[in-house]
Design brief:
With 174 residues, the protein is an alpha+beta fold. The chain has 5 helices and 9 strands.
């Protein structure tokens, strides 16, 4: 019996891809933290081995916010794109899902896509406050599950923004 094409596209990395990752790429640190330059470089140099290295892993990527956008589904509330300033390496797209923000909060993206604001509301929906959440050019640490390499972009899902203190602590170990 032949499997449908959609089923053939969704596969886990083979044992050979995992072995390639071990021989071609530096191992993932125990804390799962990598710089944007490292993960993008891994996929740029050997995407098959990189898929084997990151598959099924929850990782933290530390890098520069290049773009902010609204999610394209009811479960996806925010998409943060991390990329180097020259845009010379693959981008990391971080999908924040419903539930990744504090309760009774939402995200508003500025018209030009340069700012994300966290809007806090009471139970009746009245706005209690607004605070800056993310901005383009900001250095961040985002933790998420590696999902796939899609059209040249590295996709993480179920993402959470780490505090600047945690980012600095992880950076000191890179």
């Amino acid at each position: 019996m032949v499997a449908p094409l959609a089923a053939q596209d969704a596969y886990s990395p083979t044992k050979i891809a995992r072995m390639d990752a071990a021989s071609y790429l530096q191992p993932l640190p125990k804390n799962g933290a990598v710089s944007l330059k490292t993960i993008a470089g891994d996929f740029a140099s050997n995407s098959q081995a990189a898929a084997g290295k990151y598959a099924g892993r929850r990782i933290t990527v530390i890098g520069r916010v290049a773009m902010l956008g609204n999610g394209s589904s009811e479960n996806k509330i925010l998409v943060v794109t991390l990329q180097d300033a020259a845009a010379s390496l693959p981008a990391v797209k971080c999908n924040f899902l419903f539930g990744s923000l504090p309760q009774n909060s939402s995200i508003e993206i500025s018209g030009d896509g340069s700012q994300a604001t966290l809007v806090q509301r009471d139970r009746s929906g009245a706005v209690l406050g607004r605070q800056s959440y993310l901005s383009v050019g900001q250095k961040v640490a985002i933790k998420g599950d590696f999902q796939e390499l899609k059209v040249g972009d590295i996709v993480l899902t179920a993402c959470k923004l780490l505090s600047s203190e945690k980012r600095r602590a992880l950076e000191s170990n890179l």
